[in-house]
């Protein structure tokens, strides 16, 4: 059986883990800690879950741990180079099995533009990984417009990933942010991109929204209706969502997948494992459930001609053959 392409997989280098610890992120987003990762462990999980290829990215908290000072920007740029070089080396060592979604040192815009060019032109990155917010500044912030313009000019694939929203230490009520805050922050980010007109201004960016669209399918019509009451141009949020892509990482069943398919066609779906933040046994269990889901019976999650995975990640198409 042809394997799926995993559009939502992560990697953790030893240096990255050490720098997270040193910056106070020993328990990122309220989780017990950063999981271990290795190529061998990833390949084992891929084999057990029927995954042919995986696009690797750095998860929350990203690479910029401080304020927008010169010193912090330099540190973030250096760490971004490290993890992107490591990811590119992994992809080169396992041709067709791994791709790279490169991290940027935002909110440092100049550093982000430089690393974006390096990742695409020198490392051959398959996508760019963006967090929903950077120290409380969301992707629709006008300060980030140069980065989005460059992504648009390159028709880049963007793998969006949530991080803790501002004030998460209060709104999470002592629970890990990935439980519900991540879903709300993804939703907040995409709604803001739509209402600001950012998505319309940058139509060539191909966005992959994680976790089966988070809460977006549930609130889409409410956002559309309320946008009509405000000054400016109303936003047809369901139509906006129909033009994005979605990975199925996390608990897409039994409810989220059905809600997502109300606003997005099956040709917009991609598989996502979220390994190693989702442990290996859970990856296998969730993948098995998706394979048995009637709603996915005719959906191609492999990187084969005509699939979303092949359109977005053509370099990895050979792995699915």
UniProtKB/TrEMBL annotation:
Gene3D superfamilies: Metal-dependent hydrolases. GO terms for molecular function: 6-methylsalicylate decarboxylase activity; hydrolase activity; metal ion binding. Transmembrane segments: none annotated. Keywords: Hydrolase, Lyase, Metal-binding, Zinc. It comes from the Bacteria. It catalyses: 6-methylsalicylate + H(+) = 3-methylphenol + CO2. Residues 6-314 form the Amidohydrolase-related domain. Its EC number is 4.1.1.52. GO terms for cellular component: cytosol. SUPFAM superfamilies: Metallo-dependent hydrolases (SSF51556). It is an enzyme of class 4 (lyase). Pfam families: Amidohydro_2. GO terms for biological process: secondary metabolic process. This is 6-methylsalicylate decarboxylase. The lineage of its organism: Bacteria, Bacillati, Actinomycetota, Actinomycetes, Streptosporangiales.
